[in-house]
Amino acid sequence: MLNYLAWLSCLALLLTTASCGVEDQADEAGPRLSVDKSQVEITRNGQLSTGSNATILVIANKGYEIVSDQPWLTVNKPSGQGYTWVTVKAESNDTEAPRTGNLTVRSHHLVENIKVTQTLAEIDLARVFYSETFDWAIPIAKPESDPVALGGGNSNRWNIYSDDTGKDAWAANCKLTDWNPERKAIGLYLHYIHFNSNSNFDTGVILPGIDAEGYVNATLSFEACKDGGGSGDTVPIVVEIIDGPGTIAETGKTMSEAMIPAEQWKWHQMGVTLVGISADSKISIHTNGKGANKYCRWFLDNVQLKEILDN
């Protein structure tokens, strides 16, 4: 009898353990689906007005499928799994009116819809030499890693030197290089980067060389926000051509005047005009506190270098 009771107890324990295991596995196996936008607007030729391709970030842990309801509208990756950038592809709109199509993204019972509007607008022929939104950092972002939106600083970022996740993401996705690599002071937040200067030194980045023959003129635009307690740090940001040809139109020199974000926890649009740059030009965005700013912490987002066409 004792052996029989012991056997029943063991059997009950095994059944309970197995049941828990199945439930845990079911939870882990639950499909998850998200897309980064619900609407896309493209020009007559199928690209964005900037001349780049329209893309959609699809995150689907159990795989996805994308179906279009229009013959002129497709995507380059109609199926996939995990974290995937999908390019929207459209035939030239040779009709006399704008047209719309819908992309349906499915993952098991989950559905997301994306409305694509193709206008009659012509593409902007000016070349975009470089564009960086840092959206590739979104899937690896730590919780509450958007201090600008939250209105308060925190350390929920990946350092691109000391944290493997940040280091790998930076190496795989970003073409910027550190302007002051000895300090190892760049971190990744949700969709932008952070510079942490807790001493009297400056920080910044260097853009990759442009793909252009001869000399060109261009606009360099970006968004910046100051970090820090109280009313925030004083952050004198400059654009500088640190090597090769070119000048800043606004100053006639290789360095711009300082651009200082005025309000705390707010993005400030900044930019300069670059004259006579070439593939040999090295262009940087960095602070220029000249050793007088003990704290010079700031955020950078939406960097774009775009050609200026001659009229």
Characterization of this structure:
Helix content is 13%, strand content 38%. It is mainly beta. It folds into 2 domains: 33-118, Sandwich (Immunoglobulin-like); 128-307, Jelly Rolls, CATH 2.60.120.260. Strands 8, 9, 11, 12, 14, 16, 17 and 19 form an 8-stranded antiparallel β-sheet that branches. Strands 1, 2, 3, 4, 5, 6 and 7 form a 7-stranded mixed β-sheet that branches. The chain has a 4-stranded antiparallel β-sheet with strand order 10-13-18-15, with no helix packed on it. A hairpin with a 2-residue loop joins strand 6 (99-107) and strand 7. The longest helix is centred in the first third of the chain and has 27 residues, at 2-28. The radius of gyration is 25 Å and the shape is globular.
Radius of gyration, CA atoms, in whole angstroms? 25 Å
Which range does the strand content fall in? Answer: 35-45%
Shape, per Cα inertia axes? globular
CATH architecture of the largest domain: Sandwich
Q: How far is it from the N-terminal to the C-terminal residue, by CA?
A: 99 Å
What's the average pLDDT? 89
User: What's the number of helices?
Assistant: 3
User: Could you tell me the number of beta strands?
Assistant: 19
Name of the CATH class of the largest domain:
Mainly Beta
SSE ordering: HEEEEEEEEHEHEEEEEEEEEE
What percent of the residues sit in helical stretches (DSSP H or I)?
10-25%
And the CATH topology of the largest domain? Jelly Rolls
Whole-number tally of structural domains: 2
Largest sheet: 8 strands, antiparallel
